[in-house]
Amino acid sequence: MPKQQIQQSKKWYAVHTYSGFEEAVAHNLKQRVKALEMEDKIFDILVPKEKKIKVKNGKKEVVEEKIYPGYILVNMIVTDDSWYVVRNTPHVTGFIGAGTTPVPISDEEIKRIQQRMGVEEPEYKIEFKVGDMVEITDGPFKDMTGNISKIDQEKGRVEVLVDLFGRETPVEVDSVQVKKV
Hints:
Blueprint: E1 11-17, H1 22-35, E2 42-46, E3 49-56, E4 59-66, E5 71-76, H2 80-87, E6 92-95, E7 97-98, E8 101-102, H3 107-118, E9 123-126, E10 133-136, E11 145-152, E12 157-164, E13 167-174, E14 178-180
Parallel strand pairs: 3-9
Antiparallel strand pairs: 1-5, 1-6, 2-5, 3-4, 7-8, 10-11, 10-14, 11-12, 12-13
């Protein structure tokens, strides 16, 4: 008697995992797929990540951050067997969907996620927010303090309101040139 097919075609599904275990779940699931010979039903496993530029302690560094912490994406044909393999992988809490039926992710959403993952230019991750009191550590305004009035995430720059000749004057500096006071 053939196994029941819940979903006939290959689709992407979001699988909820314990936060921080996304890489381990992806690795374990890949091993289970191979060991249980499910390559004909489970095709690809993805931990969605993107590169960002993080500025900390005056230094820029490129880091990979998870786009959806606590989730992995699995490209598969859902059958009783394939569902069981994924669902019973350690640290998996379940599929995203209504009740026990997994709901596939739309092709448009998958394309957006893949584009986000493939972006070559990482974003700046600035550890400040508007209103923070900072000291300028480099450049012509070195040692001056002021409040951040604007943040440009794309360029990695901040605008600081400093006191020049008794007036608050906006000064734009690179985000690595300031530190919290």
